[in-house]
Amino acid sequence: MINVGVGQADFKVGHSGTNLEIIQTLLDEAAQKQVDVLVLPELANSGYAFASMDEAAALAEEVPTGPVCRALQAWSQPGRMVVSGLCQKSGPVLYNSAVAFSGGELLAVYHKIHLFSNESKWFQPGQQPAPVLPFRQYLVGIMVCFDWVFPEMARSLALRGAQIILHPANLVLPFCQQAMITRSIENRVFTATANRCGQERELYFSGLSQITAPNGSLLVQADEENSGVFCADIDPDAAENKWITALNHVLNDRRPDLYI
Prior knowledge:
The chain is α/β, with parallel strands linked by helices. It has helices spanning 16-32, 53-59, 67-75, 119-122, 151-159, 176-187; strands spanning 2-8, 37-40, 81-90, 93-102, 105-111, 132-135, 138-142, 164-168, 190-194, 197-200, 203-206, 210-212, 218-221, 228-234, 243-245, 248-249. The protein has a 6-stranded mixed beta sheet with strand order 5-4-3-2-1-14. It has a 6-stranded mixed beta sheet with strand order 6-7-8-9-12-13, covered by helices on one side. It has a two-stranded antiparallel ribbon with strand order 10-11.
């Protein structure tokens, strides 16, 4: 059994110092609640609704030397993992990234491959598959926000053995939380979506951060407005059972030769 937590908060574009304080508050709360695996929202260091490329670049940080990365690394002592969305600077290029730290080490940096709306003005899309990473004796997969709308993303993570999908998000469309229940059912995996709340410029974020089980049950869900860490104890081994009926296996029964 492991304790999985999703952090929800109202981050502010243009206020890196405030965002770092918010992140540290969530990290402290997760430690108090003895969370083993923590997910924080998309672009937690920078906020989301950039007004210009210059603003986005000024709010980005390098991995792993930036201030938010250092805070995540410090929290991720042995036995813990944290995955957070990050506005990442890599030379002259910006990425909408997710970083994963465990045992005080940087495990992976995922560059979001499905950019939503104005994100394509600021970020380069990723060119590598989303990672599947070991944690204790389990496997966790990572995707970011709008990746949810492409069922192939969650399926590819499940095919590579992910038992839990960790999902930093800044959701403004009303569909994702219900869709992630479907992603759990069709892949027989746990999902953990950490979402923003509040308003930023013209955008309203939906909150409702949640953790879902392989049978589609909602293990925990935040409300639309409040910040905090919301957690549930899960047994990732339950995701090894891919039988949806006594005769139907969600992975083995696929017919990829006929999918066009």
